[in-house]
Amino acid sequence: MGKNLALNLADHGYRVAGFDLDKDKVQDVLATEAKERPDSVDEARIIGCDNIKQMLDMLVSPRVIVVLVPAGDPVDAVCQNLIEAGLNPEDIVVDCGNSQWTDTIRRESQYKDQFKFFGTAVSGGEVGARFGPSLMPGGDADSWKYLQPMWEAVAAKVDANGKPIETRTPGQPVKEGEPCTAYLGPNGAGHYVKMVHNGIEYADMQLICEAYHLLRSLLGYEPAEIGKLFEKWNQGVLNSYLVEISADILQQYDAKTGAPLVDMILDSAGQKGTGRWTSISATQMGVPAGIISESVYARALSTLTAEREKASSFLTADIDFSEIDADAVVQAIENALYCAKICAYAQGFQLMRAAQAEYNWELNFIGIAKIWRGGCIIRASFLQKIADAFEKNHELENLLLDDYFANAMAEKQKGLRDAVVLAAQSGIPTPSFYSALAYFDGYRSEVLPANLLQAQRDYFGAHTYERIDAEPGEKFHTHWQEEGRPETKVK
Ligand code: 6PG
Questions:
Q1: Is this prediction's pTM over 0.80?
Q2: What is the pLDDT of residues 54-75, one digit of tens each?
Q3: Is 474 a catalytic residue?
Q4: Of the residues 228, 237, 389, 445, which has the fewest C-beta atoms closer than 10 A?
């Protein structure tokens, strides 16, 4: 990532001095630069340094130091090294890792006397870093003014219709178009938004996997057939980078065995933690983000490989599998994927709304949707619709309350219901589809059984309840064990 961002900066006319504890990595950047731009090596666009002090001495003030190290303690270790090497209070240290937003808030205040700590979360993987990532900056507004031209230059670009302008040619960066970066707010705002991006990414990926699992298990489709189908879906409302790469993956064969490559990959998913943080943050703030949480749990369940193997011969499913019409099932799954995706994004944006109140940020939801249209892992044409929804109503509480998305759910929800029924009847686990449908039905319900729940809480713990015929906030308690069950108003 560091190497590619350095090459990207150089492509846009910035001179970069780089340092890595691993000297080979520095040499690798220089070798790539020499190979990609043999005619311009004399320009020394990228200079490899032997130590941090040498690197700092090469920079003009205020110095911008872009840090790309794993999140957590390594970021603080780098900050300490930079302080020891002589940083000044006007210098700007930009953390481009997947840092936890609370760490970014803490670091900004901890290091304020020594330098300005600024967060910029980066999405798009290695290719994104090289040719245009989505950048989610958060920190003090003065530092942003200084960083803005640089980040706007290297970020991915989209055209007037919101479509990514792709490039893969070193030395010929995209200069026109709208950059996929925008100032998101002070301290941890950028890293928080990136964390939610990743929570949505987990949901998006899991939903695609569930669609694949249904197509394979219900209809017996081969991976390559599903890949072809995904290619078709990618031409419509589901158009996205994740559907595109899934289509490609499913059409690959293992060089060693000739089997579909996906079949040779162990079904045990890893995770670095950002999806889990999103789920924890939603739980802490009481925001319903069940699809994101289910996607985290699905990865966790997948890792119980040995237990699942044992359980597969021990636990039986009482399956009611009736005749199905393949074309109708394919259509239902496509619609299910779209509806569940809408619900997952609704949860992610609802979570960010809660976070802005919690942390006193003013998140620009139009801007967030726009900077996710290109460069990042969840880039999708769908994000233009989300930007449009917030353009129409800046105070939109939930994407499901926007006409476009409400109509899409009205038109396509039968697919989600059918997919969930088929999955349940045939014993195929699709937790995120289930969760999406439950969220949709819960959100559109004027009445939920939480009245009984409140009564239960009051019964065993005198936790009180509100009455529908009293003023909001007035609390009541029924003396459930006493004769006549008297009710008292609680002060
Ligand atoms: C991105 C990705 C990137 C990375 C995540 C996912 O936006 O470029 O989200 O940040 O792939 O760390 O990691 P896990 O799936 O391992 O949690």
A1: yes
A2: 999 999 999 999 999 999 999 9
A3: no
A4: 445
